[in-house]
Amino acid sequence: xxxxxxxxxxxxxxxxxxxxxxxxxxxxxxxxxxxxxxxxxxxxxxxxxxxxxxxxxxxxxxxxxxxxxxxxxxxxxxxxxxxxxxxxxxxxxxxxxxxxxxxxxxxxxxxxxxxxxxxxxxxxxxxxxxxxxxxxxxxxxxxxxxxxxxxxxxxxxxxxxxxxxxxxxxxxxxxxxxxxxxxxxxxxxxxxxxxxxxxxxxxxxxxxxxxxxxxxxxxxxxxxxxxxxxxxxxxxxxxxxxxxxxxxxxxxxxxxxxxxxxxxxxxxxxxxxxxxxxxxxxxxxxxxxxxxxxxxxxxxxxxxxxxxxxxxxxxxxxxxxxxxxxxxxxxxxxxxxxxxxxxxxxxxxxxxxxxxxxxxxxxxxxxxxxxxxxxxxxxxxxxxxxxxx
Length: 389
Description:
The chain is of the alpha/beta class. The chain has helices at residues 30-35, 124-136, 154-159, 175-184, 186-189, 204-209, 236-245, 263-276, 335-340, 346-353, 362-365, and strands at 54-56, 69-76, 79-93, 98-104, 109-113, 116-120, 144-149, 167-172, 197-201, 216-222, 246-255, 281-287, 295-302, 376-379, 385-388.
């Protein structure tokens, strides 16, 4: 999930501490500065790119404590989306993270990891369906698929719609996330019941390093935010390891943060992925109300080989036998929204186009050549990402 299906992801460019100025803190990138509406709430523990949520019991005008309890899910320091809590269903801690499940009044059950909302019954479809079908509907007849993270089971549920798939490997580091979701999110954890699923509990970096070369048609990274224990999952060595495990023409779908808040992270991830995946790299996005800023992005990457056109589904979900039969109806994804997901707002196109990829890679790898022409990302009208001298 956006802030963590069980702990794997990338290092953030900024760090925020408390509510005061700290000379030891790294400065916020411009995209974070423009989004920062105020200092973090005193009760909230701050992360590099997100702020943990907290419970409040608001007081009435007469100074009496209200019985109504809210969970404040920060969109960014200074703003939060408050969810009315009906009942706390579970609180616990694994070796990797704190886990909270509560019943909300409008979004159903809510999963929170380390104080960050991961999913809710109401809007999980917008994430689970898009992160799965954007890659799988872009290639013909995927057979072997790997999920990194995804302990709630939602991505497995969606992969199971594809009758061409023969094996579904999932590598999840946190067994407790799996167990908790099986109890409180049965509509997601049903994905584990598919006989094609093979669960591997452990570190995804080690798992992929030991995987045979060219094994998978698609890899879906359903991890946490690019901070803390998830740091390795968007760095170049891991991206290269993923590429090694993919077949020629295989595809990766990785989380790529919010275009409203984290364009510096998107730029860095684009740079890394473009160096590794020569079959094409595209940015897509979807709307998830309970995620910071209400949107989340994806990077769709293709390994060199048979051409992949992410912009138009060659394996449309509507034509897959049984994929949308009664009881398995899709709630969010369809072929039209697949195409629309790659249409970028003007400000995003502008910020990604202006990013000089050579400043982060060429200078380090070829210092003598770095004084030559710089290369910049160019996004064409069809949203293909090219290199312009």
